[in-house]
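DM between two lab members

TW: hey, do you still have the 50 kDa actin-binding protein entry open?
JB: yeah, one sec
JB: this one, 244 aa:
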Amino acid sequence: VAINKMDEKSVNYGQARFDEIVKETSSFVKKIGYNPEKINFVPISGWAGDNMLEKSPNLSWYKGLTLLEALDAITEPKRPTDKPLRVPLQDVYKIGGIGTVPVGRVETGVLKPNMVVVFAPGNLSTEVKSVEMHHVALPEATPGDNVGFNVKNLSVKDIRRGMVAGDSKNDPPRETESFTAQVIILNHPGQIHAGYAPVLDCHTAHIACKFSELLSKVDRRTGQSVEDSPKNVKNGDAAIVKLT
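TW: and the structure you got?
JB:
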């Protein structure tokens, strides 16, 4: 966790404000299941460059890592190339001389030219003519790559932001009327009952849903059920919920 703007006049590189933010942030990350003791809290000033690449004399009280060292210490996660392809669309462009180009980040699987992809919802299928990243053609795109891919026989009116592309031959994405999710209530006034209707942001989709059924209340860290069919949930609770 990088704590920026340590050069701000009211802070003036002081340890007291840093400690206050660490305490506040620690309680938040603990709520969502992380151990604060295993997290690096790094004071920095992006504007003045303090503790970004090298130790800063302005932060002589801080004995931990610089931001660059903290980033280098992170273990890179294994990219899920073995899972079915999923590319949530961020946007769709019409490019003269090329055609329709959806843009998105590969979340799982591998996207390749000549692959037949399916866009859901809508179940539209088409062939991928080419895959590009930063104007360079790729033989394949893997998880984490932000790419544009040229598709045949579809216009910009057929596909849109929020849709998901997948491989037609390997568990393609499908539209669903309901799904089950684990939900953690971090900050909400009052209690939440069945019938609550929030707006859900899932990757690039932005859509109204409904908590149609509270299936169980669970322990945030272990996922074990602690109460079946609760009447309500409140701040700090985690629950398995059926959304429609």
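TW: got it. DSSP finds two helices and 15 strands in the chain. The mean pLDDT is 92.
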